[in-house]
Amino acid sequence: MLNFLVTNDDGIDCQGIHVLASTLSLFGHVRIVCPDSEKSGFSHAITTRRPLTLTHLEDRSTDRIQVYTVNGSPADTVNIAMDVFYQEQKPDFVVTGINAGVNAGQDIYYSGTVAAARQAVLHGVPAIATSLERQPDGSLAYQEIIPDLKRVLKVLLAKVFPDNTLINLNFPAYKPTRQETPVPVEVLPIELDARKFSYHEDLDYDGQKVYYLSSHYRTVSVKEGTDIDRLRKGSITVSPLLVKQNNEALLNKVQQWFNDESVY
After folding, report:
1. Architecture of the domain defined by 2-192+221-263
2. Residue 9 assigned ligand-binding role
3. Largest Cα–Cα distance of the chain, in whole Å?
């Protein structure tokens, strides 16, 4: 049986993490260690200037799923779990999500769900970040994705991931009633050039200018064959991502810049 650590950035009360944990429990034992409240958009932030509390929610735990919360960021939850529970034996996988909304394109740099998976890889643990696209009305069909979630996890959990790699897994918006044909699964690169967000100006009650973040996920122009492109067309997208980002190929070139004595 496999051992899973599960976290998210939407917090303990998000339905997605419980759907994910329940599905993973079919493959092994699950320990949820997640934020005690919503931490969306926290990226890879960690808490440095106050102590953190790890709370065991016994009333929400079962034999197969133990539930804990941390009053910190998604990356904090992975770090604490690794120090408290996995000193002697690491989990087989860290799986994060299911995020309330896609983490596609440049979202991978903002998302706490993806960052928690990234932190797991830094601990030497294979990681999968999972996210679900919202319907145009904002709803999330968590229950409807379960058959396809099982189908995709069955493949991924049977594999040995390369070092320094996480899998970013996005599910398209599902209708409340599932169609008969299986949803296609496509392995694709991330769309990293399209800017999904911008700010629009308004006035607050005091007449002060304020700026609200707007998403252009459904309308921004994207390259064909990327994650956003295929999500819009109804595919499940699987994108392998590198975590450690040293640019070894440029080391010598940049060193040459500093070999010129005129810079000193």
Report:
1. 3-Layer(aba) Sandwich (3.40)
2. yes
3. 69
